[in-house]
Amino acid sequence: MKTGQIIKSISGVYRVDVDGEQFDAKPRGLFRKKQITPVVGDIVDIDFETHASGYIQHVHERKNELKRPPVSNIDILVVVMSAVEPDFSTQLLDRFLVIAHSYGLSPRIVITKKDLATDAQRAEIERLLAIYQHIGYDTQFIGKDDDVQAVFDAWESGIAVLSGQSGVGKSTLLNSYRPELALETNSISQSLNRGRHTTRHVELYPRANGYIADTPGFSALDFDHIEKYELDGYFIEISEASEYCKFRDCSHTNEPKCHVKALVESGEIADFRYQHYEQLLQEISNRKVRY
């Protein structure tokens, strides 16, 4: 019996890294009965049938987990957006950040394609990133001439997951970091202003102090697991300000003496962030109850 970490999963076969050695393993039938599905990032115990393959006997408890894409035990979640093609969107960024926080992750922000942006676009993105930095997010704005190796290696140790919509350059970043991977990349659909999916499974690749994962791009973000009363906790600055609202269950919409709205009016909370909070709150409030 050996203990290792799942680094790849395709068609029910799991590649497990055990102290630098890799083995293929399948889950025991009892996993199906217990409705347990191993995912990339899991720490597992494997029992060997041959020197190269075996069966997963036990999945260790996960410290965190993303449902879409399925990956566990994440140390760093990197939300990747592009400056152009597709155009940078604070609304989409905030939605990714909310999803990250809802799973107990502390995301950082990387904006790509700086070299393709105009001077005016770069200036506006830098202005917006300064707002996110003030809130408490680590941000990086990079182009094709930047040292991607230094960017990745500067992150904390452990599993770093790249997430973001298709076409923002996640696979391109990995190709710059590890050219031997030769990951497939595709051009942007001009009519839709978004990328076509190129990554079809989650896989962990070694980096200086851990792993990095390229994940399938998102075409939609699912907020079904988030309740409306939780949402303000996923906007850092709104969560901090809410402690000073008159009502403990303040939704920061129509209540009197709302400290959040006061800070929006004074400019201490960015108006666009508050608008995105309001929009998401409305979406969550209006969704149909599922039985």
From TrEMBL:
InterPro entries, sorted: G_CP_dom, NA-bd_OB-fold, P-loop_NTPase, Ribosome_biogen_GTPase_RsgA, RsgA_GTPase_dom, RsgA_N
Residues annotated as binding Zn(2+): C245, C250, H252, C258
Gene Ontology CC terms, in alphabetical order: cytoplasm
Sequence positions that bind GTP: T112, K113, K114, D115, G164, Q165, S166, G167, V168, G169, K170, S171, T172
Assigned keywords, A-Z: Cytoplasm, GTP-binding, Hydrolase, Metal-binding, Nucleotide-binding, Ribosome biogenesis, RNA-binding, rRNA-binding, Zinc
Cellular location(s): Cytoplasm
Cofactor (UniProt): Zn(2+)
CP-type G domain residues: 63-221
Cited NCBIfam families: ribosome small subunit-dependent GTPase A
HAMAP family: GTPase_RsgA
UniProt name for this protein: Small ribosomal subunit biogenesis GTPase RsgA
